[in-house]
Amino acid sequence: MSDYENRMEKAVEVVEKELMTIRTGRANPGILDRVNVEYYGSKTPLKGIANISVPEGRTLVINPFDMSALAEIEKAIIESDLGLNPSNDGKKIIINIPELTKDRREELVKQTKKIIEEGKVAVRNVRRDVLNDAKKSDEMTEDESRNFSNEVQKVTDKYIAKIDELSNSKEKELLTI
Questions:
Q1: pLDDT tops 70 at residue 177
Q2: pTM for the complete prediction?
Q3: CB 29 within 8 A of CB 47
């Protein structure tokens, strides 16, 4: 796989990770991936200091490896922009994922579209960079340059289609719960 394909694949992976953090009304440990906890003086990812499980469809349970971090974990979740209300029972944190309202679903679809568009722009930027580098290189004939541009466009279209697929499945997931 060429360098530009690797870069486009990474752009798709970033979109995938970002979409995982969008809450859909079902419990998914991925929604807590962006939560960082103040732990012994440094910001630490939540999944690095606690076990996150899904015992039921709309419940997350967080079991910290170190019980002294329980209050900081709860505080980090509250301060995150996820709109979750954790409850602390002294040993673990339980998060009940509330049902999404129609307005909130539409807001999440807009957020999804923004992430999707950023991903497409990233893929197109890779295409632009590759084609600019090829133009600067005087090693290709005009026909080779045209063929190379067509090949790069086909690869770009493939990755844009992958991003569109992610978009469609996330929007469907958000709107059909």
A1: no
A2: 0.68
A3: yes
Instruction: Report how far residue 173's alpha carbon sits from residue 65's, in angstroms, rounded to the nearest whole number.
Output: 32
State how beta strands 86-88 and 42-45 pair: unpaired
Is the distance from CB of 85 to CB of 50 less than 8 angstroms?
Answer: no
H or E element at residue 53: strand 50-56
Paired tokens of 131? 């084609």
Interatomic CA distance for residues 107 and 105, integer angstroms? 5
* Distance separating alpha carbons of residues 175 and 25, to the nearest angstrom: 10
CB 112 within 8 A of CB 19: yes
Q: Tell me what pLDDT residue 108 has.
A: 86
**What's residue 62's pLDDT?**
93
Query: Which tens digits make up the pLDDT trace of 111-167?
Result: 899 999 999 999 999 999 999 888 887 788 888 888 999 999 999 999 999 999 999
pLDDT value, residue 1: 47
Q: What are 51's strand-pairing partners?
A: 63
Residue among 46, 56, 47 nearest 26 (CA): 56
Q: Encode 88-133 in three state secondary structure.
A: ECCCCEEEECCCCCHHHHHHHHHHHHHHHHHHHHHHHHHHHHHHHH
Dist. CA 37–CA 17, nearest whole Å: 19
